[in-house]
Backbone:
């Protein structure tokens, strides 16, 4: 079972779940579980939303569904990972993104 808390030292692997790419996330989590030290920290991020050209890509032009999130959640808890964080699905990530349309 993954512990909840504040990381104070060590390495943390951050992974962003992409829509329609849940198997890739499972593969990465499985690799981490099999190849990294038991005390490694894993941060699974669920805040993806499409911007710029991703909005035109049919595979990633949307946020994660609750079903996709739950599938990753269930898989994560089936592994032997002990330390980490799983971000909850949110509704308002876009409002925190800076305007990258500026040119220089």
Residues:
């Amino acid at each position: 079972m993954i512990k909840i808390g504040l990381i104070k030292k060590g390495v943390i692997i951050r992974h962003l779940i992409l829509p329609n790419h849940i198997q890739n996330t499972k593969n990465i989590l499985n690799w981490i579980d099999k190849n990294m030290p038991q005390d490694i920290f894993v941060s699974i991020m669920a805040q993806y939303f499409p911007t710029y050209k991703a909005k035109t890509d049919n595979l990633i032009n949307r946020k994660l569904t609750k079903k996709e999130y739950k599938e990753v959640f269930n898989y994560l808890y089936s592994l032997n990972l002990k330390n980490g964080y799983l971000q909850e699905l949110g509704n308002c990530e876009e409002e925190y993104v800076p305007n990258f349309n500026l040119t220089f």
The longest strand covers residues 12-16. The mean pLDDT is 84. The chain is about 25% helix and 15% strand.
